[in-house]
Write a structure and sequence with these properties.
The protein has 270 residues and is of the alpha/beta class. It has 6 helices and 11 strands. It has one domain: 3-Layer(aba) Sandwich (Rossmann fold), CATH 3.40.50.620. Strand 4 (64-73), helix 2 and strand 5 form a beta-alpha-beta unit. It starts with 8 loop residues before the first strand and ends in an 8-residue tail after the last helix. One of its GO terms (cellular component) is mitochondrial matrix.
Length: 270
């Protein structure tokens, strides 16, 4: 029997709808951003976060009470939530913004997540936030750290392994750092950001996709959370990198040196 005094784990997983990783990015005609009329999918690092939440429940069994996913985005972002629900999450929260609205910045997203966590206190609270270390569209890699700072929670970034002890209200997280691996022990509540080698996300089965259609999604607006998602930065211009010039062949070292000199490059003697 599980002691009644042991608190069950409530997990929150933020996910983002991004341009699919396999799409070749192109700048839009007004040079204010990229062409978004292409295939979108869940941010790959967020898929890893959803998978890890589901695996934690499989490992901890009845010690995980709920897995809730949240996204901030236009109406089409509901598809991303349904994907997460099909992978095994229980319910979703959609903070809906207009299709034409600019993408919120990490600080705005973190403030919205803080407001959601505060709302969830009435339903048992959030003990663990698992999220991707970065989104592949802006590559900011800031939201998890900002959220932990706003909440004054422990944080463990770039996780490649997560072990949670619900009874002790702590987690051991193995982090990927420049010199190798680092293991940190953190008290719950905790914000964890996921790295690529944490796991390999599962494919949602057809039965689970059908079940996901019946799982609840709560719709909110930024005003419901008393959060302003207006960007603080303005994009002046977006341009593609210069096209690479093809190389050429030379017949001898002397010809190579001559070509380098023509290009304004002075060869250095060994």
């Amino acid at each position: 029997m599980r002691p009644s005094a042991v608190r069950l784990l409530n997990i929150l997983v933020p996910v983002k709808r991004t341009v699919d990783y396999a799409v070749k990015i192109r700048v839009n005609p007004d040079q204010k951003g990229i062409d978004l009329n292409v295939k979108h999918s869940m941010n790959p690092f967020d898929e890893i976060a959803v998978e890890e939440a589901v695996r934690l429940r499989e490992r901890l069994k009845d010690e995980v009470k709920s897995i809730k996913v949240v996204t901030i985005g236009p109406p089409k972002s509901a598809e991303t939530l349904r994907t997460a629900l099909a992978m095994g999450a229980d319910a979703g929260i959609h903070v809906e913004v207009p299709e034409s609205a600019p993408a919120p910045e990490p600080l705005g997203v973190a403030k919205a997540l803080r407001a959601i966590i505060e709302r969830e206190k009435e339903k048992g609270g959030i003990d663990l936030v698992i999220m991707g270390k970065q989104a592949i569209d802006d590559d900011a890699g800031q939201t998890g750290q900002i959220l932990a700072g706003l909440m004054d929670w422990a944080q463990a970034t770039f996780a490649s392994k997560i072990v949670v002890d619900v009874a002790k209200k702590e987690a051991n997280v193995t982090r990927e750092v420049d010199g190798g691996l680092e293991e940190v022990r953190c008290r719950l509540p905790l914000v964890v950001t996921t790295d690529l080698r944490l796991n390999e996300p599962r494919y949602a089965s057809l039965p689970n996709i059908m079940k996901a259609k019946k799982k609840p999604i709560e719709k909110l607006t930024p005003s419901d959370l008393n959060v302003d998602l207006t960007p603080r930065l303005e994009t002046l211009k977006v341009t593609e990198p210069p096209k690479r010039v093809g190389g050429g062949k030379v017949e001898s070292v002397d010809e190579l040196i001559a070509k380098l000199k023509e290009a304004g490059i002075t060869p250095v003697k060994a």
